[in-house]
Amino acid sequence: MKKLLSLLLAAAVAVTSAVIFAGCAGTEYPVEVANIKIEKEPENIVVLDANAADIIAFMGYDGKIVGRSDQVNQTDLAAAPSVGDSSNPSVGKIKDSGATVVFASGELSASSAKSLEADGIKVVSISFAETQKQLQSSYTAAGKILGGKISGSVKGEESYKRLIDELKQIQSSIPVDPNSKNTPDTVCYLYSEGDNLKIMTQNTYGEMLLKYTNCENIAAEVDEDTVDVQLLNKTKPKYIFYSDAAVLKAIKTDPVISKLPAVRDNNVLQITENEMKRQGGTAVNTVKRMVDFVYKGKRSNPNETTDAQAQQATQNVKVQQATQATQAQQATKA
Predict the structure, then answer these.
(1) What CATH number is attached to the domain comprising 277?
(2) Contact, 68 vs 42, CB < 8 A?
(3) Whether 239 contacts 269, CB under 8 Å
(4) Are 256 and 234 in contact (CB under 8 A)?
(5) What pLDDT is stored for residue 255 in this prediction?
(6) How many domains does the chain have?
């Protein structure tokens, strides 16, 4: 009788679990993001936007990628076949790939988008995030599309949190200089648009990355992104990050910038615009590169306990034990 009862209970649990999982599956899709309705979980996707690809790969959905644009040049995604340029890809290759969703940027031509949508392929885009809140929304949106409104949203939130945690872990590994007097080193990021030299200013994603170096962006209070040579001369940044060879040439040929201490001491490092504009695993690697350059690779492992910390921990234990012993004696006398 007991054996029969156990079997009946096991069967009941199995049925209940099946119903629960079936219910969950039914609530994941359809999902709607930015007025685009995804009817079921995409098994195959094509990614034309490099930043979206970075986020998707960091979230662990890169196994769904069956095609990419030439601009998606991350080494980890090189195995996916190219479908051409991000603005004018081979629509035929995308259709032949079996993809049901295409992640595109604003560069995709209207004719390409129309042709894909006529074949039932959803064209979505993940907006470039300038703030942490926007970045969190980007991860949530990508999660919903690729994993469903419940499971996908959770994965998006967890992936975003992991990204921020990894960036903070790098920041916490920065050595503390006892002679610094709490004055951070100064830094700036220079890039170009056309023939114009630009500087990374406040309220930008790039500035957010710079903050994780514990350095002060000299343009943190600046709204205008066109380079002000007088600002550079006044603040004299200790470190300069630059986007490409053309910007480096401008730095070295400008009569004012070329005489800055950062240039004189060769405290300049190339960080490409791709590195500064990708918001997944690339962001982690970019911050690591900048921090290692500024602090000469002297990062500590925040999970390791230093001798001083160990000694302090031992002392704390001894104090706690002595306190407990005193309290015990007082309790006995009472």
Answers:
(1) 3.40.50.1980
(2) no
(3) yes
(4) no
(5) 97
(6) 2
pLDDT for res 292 = 97
Q: What is the DSSP letter of 212?
A: T
- Single-letter amino acid, residue 20: I
Q: Where are the beta strands (DSSP E) in the chain?
A: 31-33, 36-38, 45-47, 65-68, 101-103, 122-124, 186-193, 196-199, 216-217, 239-242, 268-270
pLDDT of residue 181: 66
Check residue 298 and give its pLDDT. Answer: 77
Distance CA(154)–CA(216), nearest Å, equals 34
Return the pLDDT at 14. Answer: 44
What b/e sequence results for 55-69 when a residue is b if at least 16 CB atoms lie within 10 Å of its CB, and e otherwise?
Answer: bbbbbebbebbbbbb
State the Cα–Cα distance between residues 114 and 110, nearest whole angstrom: 6
Between CA 30 and CA 122 the distance in angstroms is: 13
Asked if 189 contacts 241 with a C-beta cutoff of 8 angstroms, the reply is yes
Judge contact between 315 and 323, C-beta under 8 A: no
pLDDT at 37: 96
**Which of 168, 199, 215 delimits the end of a domain?**
168
Pair 90, 59 in one domain: yes
Residue 315 lies in a domain: no
Nearest to 268 by CA among 283, 248, 253: 248
Q: What number of helices (H) and strands (E) belong to the chain?
A: 13, 11
Choose among 144, 47, 32, 36: nearest CA to 99: 47
Range of the domain at 198: 186-294
- What is the model's pLDDT at position 300? 67
**What are the C-alpha distances in Å from 82 to residues 73, 162, 318?**
10, 29, 63
Residues of the chain with confidence (pLDDT) below 70 = 1-25, 179-181, 300-334
Q: What is the dihedral of CA 140, 205, 106, 45, to 10 degrees?
A: -40
